[in-house]
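Shapes recur. Our protein:

. . .
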Amino acid sequence: MITANKAQHCETMAEVRSHIDALDERITALLVERTGYMTQAARIKQDASKVHDQERIEFIAARVRRMAAEQGGQPEVVEAAYRALMDASIAFERREFARLRQGETV
């Protein structure tokens, strides 16, 4: 398990912003990688109705809440961020699903 809440003590807003900017670089790289898996999911799934999987959404939401709590974080914040991420990911996957099947006849 990853131990979180490694936030360093800061004396100025410039320090806070510097740390946030560094984290944003790492988070962005991870989100780009995660989005790559959405493209693969769109390729693998054979039915557009499978793009939105409410059971999987709730599983992920509960999982990240639990992980946040275990790591001393704010479960509500993490869940809200993940729900927004999942909504955007589903919209992207729908577009990818359609793009990958352009010109196919049913």
Summary: The longest helix spans residues 13-44.
